[in-house]
Amino acid sequence: MERSTEVSKVETAAVETAPIEVSPEPAKRRARAGLGAQLSFRNIGAIYVWIALGIVFTIWKPDLFPTTQTLKSTLNEYAITGLAALSIVMPLAAGIFDLSIGSTVGLAGVFAGWSMNTLGLPPVAAIILTLVVGLGIGLLNSLVVVRMKIDSFIGTLATGSIIAALTLWISGDEIITGKLTGTFTNFASTSVAGVQLPVLYMLVVMVVLGYLLEQTVFGRHIYAAGYGPDVARLVGLRVGRLRTLSLIWSGVLASFAGIALAAQLGSADPTSGPEYLIPAFSAAFVGASQFRHGRFNPWGAIVAVMMIGTGSVGLLLAGTQPWMPQVFQGAVLIAAVGISTMQRKTASRPADT
């Protein structure tokens, strides 16, 4: 009897410890399903639209559009838009609308030109001082939005109006040229194989911002502050500080974009900044519907900038009216906000049990 019991125990142990053969088919199906989700239109629709636009304009204008020069021109022209879009990704991730970025872009170029022409500062000092002004704009927006608790949409719209007025006052409502040459213009007009430095700046900022938001505790806290501020406060996060830092990021980077714009053009137009507001928000919201399912991210924003740039440049090359790119950008913004809103509602909906 004892021997039978021992044999039974050994057999049981052998069965329990024997390797279990698992069919690779379910794992393969899951991998295929995951790849299909990643390549779905819902996840990377902007890339498919970008490709479709390229095909349409290639057929429409085969002698003008499908050239290397057109690609380089689009990159150079929309690099500043890319920087402007990246400046608002962090505030949007933190639940803040910064509508002052267009005015900040305009002020930065004018202030840099004024610093060199009127104060006699060398280009490097003028650039640094202008970035400090951008930091001050971020703190001003923080005072209005975080401390005074004014809705960010209204608060930054108001500060943007003040910044625009300040821009006109400093410039005398005139385009500044003067000393915007030499070292200053080299900051943005220098090109490598026809691609100007702002394109490189845009790509570097994209990588840095992507790392901050997705690979650091700070980035996770930013997203938490944006998607659940009350819950974030309950677990001890300082939501106000996080939003202040996001607005400082926005002010400094928008100022950097304004400096690059003035250096690229060799002049500072006090009215040039606000035209970057709609394209930047369009790109940020289109980007939120790409890769991260409703979460604002720099990768999607830059893909969206290139998509918008391709559509706008293609329309101009096709000989449409000059106002058509603005219509295109506005339509993209409406569609992007709608898609992003639907994705957020879907993500927050409890799963069926």
Can you describe this structure in just a few lines?
The protein has 353 residues and is an all-alpha fold. It contains 15 helices and 2 strands. The chain starts with a helix and ends in a 5-residue tail after the last helix.
Spell out the blueprint of helices and strands.
Layout: H1 2-17, H2 24-38, H3 41-60, H4 68-93, H5 101-117, H6 123-147, H7 152-171, H8 183-189, E1 191-192, E2 195-196, H9 197-215, H10 217-227, H11 229-234, H12 239-265, H13 277-288, H14 298-317, H15 324-348
Antiparallel strand pairs: 1-2
Helix pairs in contact: 3-14, 4-9, 4-10, 4-12, 4-13, 4-14, 5-6, 5-7, 5-12, 6-7, 6-12, 8-12, 9-10, 10-12, 13-14, 13-15, 14-15
Descriptive overview:
The chain is an all-alpha fold and 353 residues long. It has one domain (46-344): ABC transporter involved in vitamin B12 uptake, BtuC, CATH 1.10.3470. Helix content is 75%, strand content 1%. The protein is built from 15 helices and 2 strands. The protein has helices spanning 2-17, 24-38, 41-60, 68-93, 101-117, 123-147, 152-171, 183-189, 197-215, 217-227, 229-234, 239-265, 277-288, 298-317, 324-348; strands at residues 191-192, 195-196. A two-stranded antiparallel ribbon has the order 1-2. α14 (298-317) runs antiparallel to α15. The chain is globular. Mean pLDDT is 85; it is low at 1-22.
